[in-house]
Here is the input.
Amino acid sequence: MVLRVLTAICVAVSAVVHLYLWQDGMKAVDVVGPAFLLNGVGGMVIAVLVIVWRHWLPLLGAVGFGVATLTAFIISTTPSGFFGVHERWVGLPVWLSAISEVGAIILGVAAIVVERRHAPISPAGAALRRG
Here is the structure.
C-alpha cells in the first residue's frame, strides 16, 4: 500500500502543478491550455483511483500519466516545441512536475511488480505451475 500512496502523491503533485499553471495563464493557450486542465483533472482522478481501487489498472494509468506528461514537456523543450509552446528546464513548477512524473513512473511500475509477485495464485494457476 505504501507504493500506491507514494504513486498517488506523485500523480497528484503533477496534477496540482498543471492546474496551477492552467489558472496562471496557460488557459489562454490554444490546445495546450485545455490539455493542462484535462491533465490536472485526470491526474487527480487517477491519484484517487490508485488508492481506492486495488487493481493494477489505476497503477498502469499512473505510469501512463507520468510517461505522457513528461514526454509532452520534453517535446516542448525542443526547437519545434509542442503546439507552439516552447519551454525550458527552469523554475519550481517545471522541476516539481518533472520529478513527480518520474516518481509516478518508477513507483507505479514498482507497485505493479510487487503486487503481482504477492498476488494469490488461483487453483488453475497452481496446477499449471506444477506441470
